[in-house]
Amino acid sequence: MTNKTIKTVFTTNPWSEEIADILVSKLIELGFDGFENLENKLLAYIPANLYDEKKIKEIKFSVDEKPVEIEFINEELEEKNWNAVWEENFPYVVIKNKCLIHADFHKIEEDYPFRILIDPKMSFGTGHHETTELVMESMLEMDFSGKNLLDMGSGTGILAILASKMGAKTVLAIDNDKWAYENSLENVKKNNVKNVEILLGDAEILGNQTFEIIIANINRNILLQDLNKYSKVLKEEGLLILSGFYQEDIESIRNEAEKHKLKYDRHFVQKNWVCLHCIKEK
Length: 282
Known about the structure:
Layout: E1 2-13, H1 17-29, E2 34-38, E3 41-47, H2 53-57, E4 62-63, E5 66-67, E6 69-81, H3 82-88, E7 93-95, E8 99-102, E9 114-117, H4 130-139, E10 148-152, H5 158-165, E11 170-175, H6 178-190, E12 196-200, E13 211-217, H7 220-233, E14 234-246, H8 250-258, E15 262-270, E16 273-280
Parallel strand pairs: 8-9, 10-11, 10-13, 11-12, 13-14
Antiparallel strand pairs: 1-3, 1-6, 2-3, 4-5, 7-8, 14-16, 15-16
Helix pairs in contact: 7-8
């Protein structure tokens, strides 16, 4: 499949990984289907026939109540098989020598305790990002047997799929992005896991079901907003795993968690990204 493609280089003021993630989610809605997150800029790719500069200029959002300034320039690229280019730049991932994350085009002979087949389609969660890797490293040291798990901000569904493969009794995965929701449905089917339920929405749709384990790999602002909701559905002595924020955010996350009977247990860091564990107090 070949077609004219436009590469758009985005810069923002201020710049952060969180802002880049928000921008990506908005660009996906406009038809952009390839991204490279480089230092202080985002490269985004879109078929030329879908490009609409007016809609790009209409993108507006704020972080911490401060408007984000967005600038961009375009470059029309020569015709290429962009699927092939994408495949060349999407390596498989092995976590702790226990879990292989791969796509359909990877032919891996080695044996691993867990294999997860992921077709990311621009949803978040392929094992390449530090937050996903940190959470999966924690999960691979845990016992999920017979436990009910909630995965908030589930992206591709990768964490929900791993929990199921590791013996979780039931898994509920929720994401507010339609693209991620549809992608996770496909990935759950590809991995033949039968006990994973995928819902489109956010913490507001949580009902009366309770969980022994909750995973929320989202971003600082959503976590701070929804910690009280997680606490309500987490059983006493249950485990809450949080990620998607930086070391400098640990204090604010801990302070808010403690207001809702979520006691800090420990945390891990990789390239300034954090995975933090809390235990629900009795």
